[in-house]
Amino acid sequence: MSDHSPPRVKWCQRCVYPSSSAITLRFDEHGICSGCRVHEQKKSIDWDQRLSWLLDDIEQYRRPSGYECVIGVSGGKDSYYQVHLVKEKLGLNPLLVTYNGNNYLDAGWQNLLRMKEVFSVDHHIFSPSVSALVRMNRQAFRKMGDMNWQGHAGIATLPMKMAVNFNIPLVFWGEHGWTDIGGMHSMHDLVEYTARYRRDQFLRGYDWFDFLDDEEDPLSEAELEWCKYPSDEEVEKVGLRGIFLGNYDPWDANEHAALVTERYAWQPSPVPFERTYRRMSNIDDRYENGAHDYLKFVKFGYGRATDHASKDIRAGYMSRAQGIEMVRKYDHVRSSDIDYWLNYVDRDAQWFDRIADSFRDPRVWTKRSGRWTKDNIWDGEQVAQQA
Length: 387
Hints:
Strand content: 5-15%
CATH class of the domain at 44-247: Alpha Beta
CATH topology of the domain at 44-247: Rossmann fold
Largest sheet: 6 strands, mixed
Radius of gyration: 21 Å
Number of helices: 15
Strand order of the largest sheet: 3-2-1-4-6-5
Distance between the termini: 31 Å
Order of helices and strands: HHEHEHEHHEHEHHEHHHHHHEEE
């Protein structure tokens, strides 16, 4: 009789990512994940040469006056670094574009508002209707177990949309996330931002029209206008390109934080997060380190501490043993901002748990005696959650 049970989760032997990762990983014969292998390529790249390639490429976009590019910014350390790089190393005049999904922490909001002053640039902040956002939060949670989908959609759409509106062909992004985390492409591929990347990766295969015709939390097309990506005709007319700066810069979050703190007085979170050890990451969004990340743990069995530790292991700031301790300490914690979000969307914890549990990955979770259990990276020990 054949065994049809899902394959057991395994972990990278260099970082702490599991095979159940939300971003697809491949493991080689040594048990090392594709994300670690692609990160190794950074050590052999001539970054001065890469910068010269970029400078040559963008020469065609220089203008005697006006905006020369768009940068989507959240106010985080990487946003500050992107603007620093574009202004200081590339010598371009950017228009900053922000999607405000109504999730900002106070420290993140203050960092965001200071950007136009410390960089002497213009800054467009777009804020959808809060009523529509609440309904999107509830819909996305029910549909895909991701209450923060609207945030991904806004970040992935507004910079390109504004570029078309202002007839600006060039949009800069930070690192290519799926390559940086999972090794989706080689560092030598120099991939660029596309409509397909936006929908397939950023938006998990969903788009604005998937939120129409919902009886429980109805949304109209007019309320989702901001979420519509430019048409192929518009992209072609403007000559729109999205360039990932991480292809031309070694992209080190810890170095970014140090630089922008010293030079631009950027501020990390004044208080620790419940689900990760970093205070410098994701302070623009209340839920990225909290409720949204807890849902990732429920679905895939890992969270933000795994993400941060894996990046820090690859960059040489942390040993794998230290990373495992960060995973053990933080990944399972149920964030208190779940209660904040439930109050925001007018629902209760029973509703949240019932829906969240429906998205649990069977490769990860087993229900035993009324409790959800999973294998872990350390010694086969199990973490138990009350079902």
